Amino acid sequence: MKETNLGRREFLKTLGVAGAGILAATSPWLSAFSEVNHTARDRCRIGIIGPGSRGQFLMGFLAQNPKADIVAIADIYQPSIDGALKIAPKAKVYKDYRRLLADPEVDGVIVATPLNTHYGIVMDAFDAGKHVYCEKTIGYTMEECFNMYNRHMSSGKLFFTGQQRLFDPRYIKVMDLVHRGTFGKISAVDAYWNRNGDWRREVPDPSLEKFINWRLYGDSSRGLMSELGCHQLQIGTWALGKLPDRVMGHGGITFWKDGREVHDNVHCIYGYDTGESLTYGSVISNKFYGLEEKIMGNLGTVEPESGKYYFEEVAPAPAFLQMVNSWENALFEEIPFAGTSWAPETANVNKGEFILGERPKTDGTSLLVDAFVEAVITGKQPERIAEEGYYASLLCLWGHKAIETGQMLVFPEEYKIDYAPYGTKKINPATDSPA
Amino acid sequence: MPHIIRQLPSDGTAVYVWFEAMHTRVDILLKSAVQDADALLAVSGEMRGLIERIETAGNCFDPDSELSRFNGLMPGERMLAGDCLYEMLSLCRRYHALTQGFFDVSAGSPGHTPHMLDTMHIEPDGEIWRESDALRLNLSGFIKGFALDRIRVLLGKKGISDAVVNMGNSSIMAIGDVPVKLNDGCLTTSGNPPGRPCQIVNPITGGLVMSPGRVEVASRSGAEGEVLSTVLFAAGADPEYEELLRSRFTIYRITRYF
Fold first, then answer.
1. Residue B212 to chain A, least CA–CA distance (Å)
2. Domains of chain A by range and CATH?
3. What is the value of ipTM here, to two decimals?
4. Alpha carbon distance B218, A46 (integer Å)
5. Residue stretches of chain A with pLDDT short of 50
6. Which residues of A touch B164 (CB under 8 A)?
7. How would you classify residue A295: left for phi > 0, otherwise alpha for psi between -120 and 50, otherwise beta?
8. Beta-carbon separation of A324 and B4 below 8 A
9. What pTM value is reported for the model?
10. Going from the N-terminus, what domains does chain B have, and what CATH number goes with each?
11. For the segment A71-86, what is each residue's pLDDT rounded down to a tens digit?
12. What residue spans of A289-364 are helical by DSSP H?
């Protein structure tokens, strides 16, 4: 996806809000931008661990941010290093990430390596006193995620995860509407991500198969659950405002029987103690329904990916939506009112309405990276951002475990963290650890 | 109630709500620089309640409405009218006189005569009754405009000065700093839409007004707008009559579409 940097002012304008404080209840991590004016002349120094395709994508945003310097990169794969140096020619190059972590000129790191390597790198980074942005899923196991979160808490260092929807204007607006009750009582969230492709990357040498295509192998990836599901499961908890307490799932390899070890179709049902359900499915041999999260309330449905919402009974009037969306303009066109009495206006076909007036220029990734830069400069951890990433990772790993075991699993108490509205357990990072 | 809330760049709040009432859809847009979204939503809820109370009082298509009960009274039998119905009937009688009989909510009665509305009796103590069991009142061409006037009073009490209320596209009120420019007034429409059955009776001839087209009236009052658009359509283009109405009502604009 081609993205452009979206300034904070334009971002908030897109949302139709006057300031970040307006959305504090729904998206408190936007506080990352609260001191953006005070930090105008400050800079931070970022190191990239794993500047492969995703890492270079993130570097592209850093390169556009005048407050960020990409001072170092670390990778063992020369093509990735070559590509990264095109974006940051002055960056120091390390083959061993630990040397990058020992570099005192690095304030924070972005970790965009294969899933199974996150844990060691992130724990070392906290120990080295670095702030951390880790791509999702953050850990290979739930225990790893728990330990990473606690190390973040005990170290006092920043912890961001690659949940870019947290900064996607469509999702922020949707959650504001959902939490205000616009669509009534939300009973279910149905999320899916379907593609038709083998999910493989070109391998220059067979010996590099597992190194390049690490997503396809069980010792380095949790497959579709960790690579795709992590994004969308977070939407379910964001919308419902709580954590599910049970999960069941199924998966298999039905089409891409090419030696891969991870499933090419997965489906999970997450249940809440109050009855709501969050379903997730991903199939990579059929793309007809594509990618979406259907948030379903008794008054309406929201589909953030398509950027539209639908009301069950009476749709909003286009002329009023035009007024609402354009109120800031002093001059208005004549709105198409006026008919005769008792004329029914309810459309037979519900075509839905757009969440935002125009398609946003960002899916949130650029703003997420910008937020990390701001936080590294201020040293302030935005509220709930680490926790959202933590639970998103746990839900996908928990679902994967349900698929693997074929059992209905209950959410493990030992992995709950103190995080309203989810948390039930007080954590003392100094003494608590999972059994 | 479905709604959309928007924080405005000027630090104000806008709330848009919509629902079905009075056989059509109702759209309400409120704006305030001092009241927050929850307060505006609460006012929207009161507005909806008011509209529903008015509909319960004066919807002749609802067999349980007050008006249906009146239409079924035995000659001479009395009933106590609620404040909404009492006011509506009082106003309809007044407008009947001011329009020289062209505004006549009894026009659909079987065997209607130009003076049939005089058989409706409104007593000072709140009781209403009818002399003839042929008298049938239909407030369809009036009730939405009346509701708009009541809503304006409610908004004034709640301290909201910027609002747009649209009832089925035929009765619209826009007050304050809003995109719809109606000089703090109402826009009402009457006529025969293409492809729909005729619904307006010429009270003088007793026949349906068959001519196509519609009349839009912009006026201060929603109730008066309903009266004016109805009689101007029923009476046809008559400059002398239009001048009479202009002398008796506050009319901003009259637009005819034929």
1. 12
2. 8-166+364-382 (3.40.50.720), 171-354 (3.30.360.10)
3. 0.78
4. 64
5. 1-4, 6, 17-21, 328-348, 422-435
6. 320, 323
7. beta
8. yes
9. 0.72
10. 1-59+139-181 (3.10.520.10), 73-130 (no CATH), 190-258 (no CATH)
11. 999 999 999 999 999 9
12. 318-325
